[in-house]
Design brief:
Length: 126
């Protein structure tokens, strides 16, 4: 809900809001013009594809963009590889994560359940 409420301004000044229930919108940013990518359904000679294209190629934004179209299956594979690489080498982040959890547990031992509920509500609002 927070992501849907946030309005982002594109490279050409046009305001865009989250309007999809897919995981990639407003995350994939064009390296050429700075606009976001949009999910498009292609039907080429009877073969259906789902691809991601820069908004500058789809709408008259006034920006010239030379970014290539990305196949959704390739995008999913790249993201999955990056996540596996990040989570595969736990030595980089596991020690810091354990320290953060321990400090939070120590700090929260003095807080009552009402205080925890109040903190949760505050975090959900932001």
């Amino acid at each position: 809900m927070v992501r849907r409420r946030v309005v982002k301004t594109g490279a050409n000044g046009k305001k865009r809001s989250y309007s999809c229930n897919h995981c990639f919108p407003q995350i994939i940013i064009c390296g050429d013009c700075g606009e976001t990518f949009r999910r498009i359904h292609w039907n080429n000679r009877g073969c259906k594809y789902i691809v991601w294209r820069c908004i500058s190629k789809l709408e008259p934004t006034g920006l010239e963009c030379h970014a290539r179209t990305i196949d959704e299956l390739d995008l999913q594979e790249i993201v999955l590889t990056a996540l596996n690489e990040l989570l595969g080498d736990k030595s980089k982040y596991q020690k810091q994560l354990q320290q953060n959890i321990a400090s939070d547990i120590r700090a929260s031992s003095a807080i009552t359940t009402d205080g925890i509920d109040e903190k949760l509500m505050k975090l959900q609002r932001s």
